From TrEMBL:
Record feature DNA-binding region, as residue ranges: 31-50
Superkingdom to which the source organism belongs: Bacteria
Pathway info: Amine and polyamine biosynthesis; betaine biosynthesis via choline pathway [regulation]
Keywords from the UniProt entry: DNA-binding, Repressor, Transcription, Transcription regulation
InterPro entries named among the record's database cross-references: BetI_C, DNA-bd_HTH_TetR-type_CS, Homeodomain-like_sf, HTH-type_TetR-like_transc_reg, HTH_TetR, Tet_transcr_reg_TetR-rel_C_sf, Tscrpt_rep_BetI
Domain HTH tetR-type intervals: 8-68
Keyword DNA-binding attributed: yes
UniProt cross-references to Pfam families, sorted A to Z: TetR_C_6, TetR_N
GO biological process, alphabetically ordered: glycine betaine biosynthetic process from choline; negative regulation of DNA-templated transcription
NCBIfam families in UniProt: betaine_BetI, PRK00767.1
Name assigned to this protein: HTH-type transcriptional regulator BetI
């Protein structure tokens, strides 16, 4: 976490620079020196406010996760609270929102996922994100099916989101939100069918 007093104008500047450098050279090559140069600040600022590269990556992912949360809220507000299919589709859409599939963001996600397997703080962030997604999905699905089935279907949808997202991130053509929605909607329709007839 950044220290109190971090100038608000600097925080987004450093987060953007971190993602841009990861996009250019990957996490291993993303040194404090390169990030500070990209942001137009001294490397001392990064060390002072974030304790180095690790703290800056953590803050960068917190920013990405906040944007994901904001997108989820916006997508959900736009649909009928009683339309389970539309609600789940909105949650899926937020995960494939324009910002989340930008090259610099997808590469940062990939770096974060890989690093979170070896870092307790980043792993905790990943678990919070995973629990939040499953919780949102279960909440909506329980409106249409038994709780046990809602848990099962939520896990299936989350796995599809992650799998499609990962395959798209590794594809030179990028992530197709349309294709993701099409695949997940097909799965959702089949799972909801017994309860909507």
């Amino acid at each position: 976490m950044p220290k109190v007093g971090m100038p608000e104008v600097r925080r987004p500047q450093l987060v953007e620079a971190t993602m841009a450098v990861i996009d250019d050279v990957g996490l291993a090559g993303a040194s404090v020196s390169l990030i500070s140069k990209k942001a137009g600040v001294s490397s001392g600022i990064i060390h002072h406010y974030f304790g180095g590269k690790h703290g800056l990556l953590e803050e960068t992912m917190r920013t990405v996760l906040r944007k994901l949360s904001t997108a989820s809220i916006a997508h959900l507000r736009a649909v009928d609270p009683n339309d389970v299919s539309a609600r789940v589709t909105a949650i899926v859409a937020a995960n494939f929102d324009g910002y989340q599939v930008e090259s610099k963001v997808t590469k940062t996600w990939m770096a974060f996922w890989a690093q979170s397997m070896h870092d307790q703080d980043l792993h905790r962030l990943q678990r919070v994100n995973e629990r939040r997604l499953l919780s949102h999905l279960r909440f909506e699905l329980k409106k249409a099916m038994p709780a046990e089935q809602a848990v099962f279907v939520a896990q299936g949808i989350a796995a599809l989101i992650d799998g499609i997202w990962l395959r798209g991130a590794l594809n030179p053509a990028g992530i197709s939100m349309h294709k993701a929605q099409e695949i997940i909607s097909d799965y959702l329709e089949k799972q909801l069918a017994p309860y909507l007839s």
